[in-house]
Amino acid sequence: MRAFFYAPFIMAAYEALSLLLPLRVNFLVKLLLFVPLLVGAGKNHICGWLGGGMLFAPDLPRWGMIAGSLLYNLLVVAFVLTVLKDLTWLLCKLLPVQRIFPRLAVHMPRKFPAAAASAFVLALAVVSTVWGTWEAVRVPDVKYHDVEIPGLSAEFEGKKVAMLVDLHASALNRRPLFEAIVARTMAEKPDLIVMPGDFVDGPVSRREADLEPLSRLSAPLGVFASSGNHEYYSGYHAWKEQLQKFGLTWLENEHRVLSLGTGRLIIAGVPDQQGGRMGYTAPDLKKALSGAPAGAPVILLAHRPEAARENAKGGVALQLSGHTHGGMMPGLDLIVARANKGFVKGWYDVDGMKLFNSPGTSLWNGFPLRIFDPAEITVLVLHRPKA
Length: 387
Known about the structure:
With 387 residues, the chain is an alpha/beta fold. Helices cover 43% and strands 16% of the residues. A hairpin with a 2-residue loop joins strand 10 (346-350) and strand 11 (353-357). Helix 1 (2-20) packs antiparallel against helix 2, helix 1 (2-20) crosses helix 4 (62-94) and helix 2 (27-41) packs across helix 4.
């Protein structure tokens, strides 16, 4: 946790030396450019001091949250681009470019253009940050995915499953966002709605009104939910009770059998691993599927994708997960994947089981950035395997 707080200041110092100092402007301008990076580095400290509330979920006006996010995001994006700039400089120093590419070397400067490169990186970082932050806070689009499920009965052919995950209600993600998400979801007329966790950052007393629009979700086959790790930081039992009051069927190592005519489909859910770490119920797929009818395909709600291989061995046909926010930006997605057993975004075939790892419908207020990683309201269309 300390590294999360202090690493940004190391990043800011590195950017001051490698990105700002080479610029051909006077020292005062460089100092003024350093101020937003320094404020961005201290964003979580400042927001916590001004807004109080739960850790990483301060209560501030939304404009203040967006302003702080812009500065923090700029720090991170500029850091990644500065590292790439410096690696390019190092390669130019180490590789005999003139011998390998003699024609290209004629047009290359004798010295690495440090000032021009820094100016370009800074401009690119600003543009990317503004775009990426906007992508993170806007209402997501609906995206359709076709999925073939072995053993699916004819009655479920073409049924639509809407998936909402990683909503993260907070001072950044407020009621108008969720009203729009619910409206767009219901406009698709889904047959089933699933929500595998991370609904909220903050206690019921502060965030209940923001998530109240979820009570308008309805589908012929039901609305089902399971926990994410952030529910445990925000008051698990209180939120479980509140979300059930909103009409969500909570699956905690449980399943339900969905019936259409003679067809059967099992929807199961396991709690997030954080529950077991904090003394709550740990995920137990065997318990979740106890008593389920044999032969009916299983759709599993599991907030994190990391247990996919174990779930595949347990007979799951389709696992629906989130948690990773899609990686948020190129480069960072590789780190996020490494922390989640190689899963980060999209479709995976895991030992015969299909895993869909959603990029998320929203994301956490601590790092709201999406560069080439748009959020989505997912609609899965179920199909029987083609002959």
